Amino acid sequence: MRPVVCLVTDRNKYGTNWRDELIERVRLAAVAGVHLIQVRERGLDDNELLELVSQCVKVVINTSCRVLVNDRFDIALAAGAHGVHLPSDGITASRLRVYAPEDFIIGRSVHSKEEAKDADLDGDVDYLLFGMIYPSQSKPGVAAAGVDLLDAVAQSVALPILAIGGVSVENIQEISENGASGFAGISIFSGSMKDFTSAIHQIGVVLTACR
User: Fold this and answer.
1) Taking a C-beta distance cutoff of 8 angstroms, is the pair 9, 38 a contact?
2) Crossing angle of helices 113-122 and 146-156, rounded to 10°
3) What's the whole-model pTM score?
4) Which of 21, 146, 163, 190 could disulfide-link to 175, CB 3.0 to 4.6 Å?
5) Residue 149's CB: how many other CB atoms inside 10 A?
6) Quick one: which H or E segment has residue 68?
């Protein structure tokens, strides 16, 4: 099975006309076969976030891509999104599941084997996001976990693990070989629109080679 690919949005990387560019990147990613879009846009008011998520949901129609909202279960439901991604210290997934639609996706960030085990025991989580794996521009000065810990976390739980932090075209194969079911990224999908489309193509080539 090819690894799962998750694009994490960051409007600060998309220029002055960030809204249109963000939505267009989501559309292109969905058409190219990216599996998940995590809308992580802190600082927007509720109406702005609701409108943005609604537009993202609209542009992935007729693709297999699913849109998740970071932390905001209420916005995810209101916008018709496909799921929510919870922070490591957020509400337990089991408390949300009873209110969630059928096939609603719930993910959670974890930063240690212990957090991963706790999330697994809580139940009702569909995947875990673990990192950061490599040094990342998004978190300068933060020590990377490395692929050995990634592998240990993946072996400690039954849930799929998506790796995040410093993921590049060059290391996708390595994380795939160390327990990850896929990856999530911000910087790998940033840069100019030309760089973005090139990265999407390169990722597809690499994933085809992954086992």
Assistant:
1) yes
2) 20
3) 0.94
4) 163
5) 18
6) strand 66-70
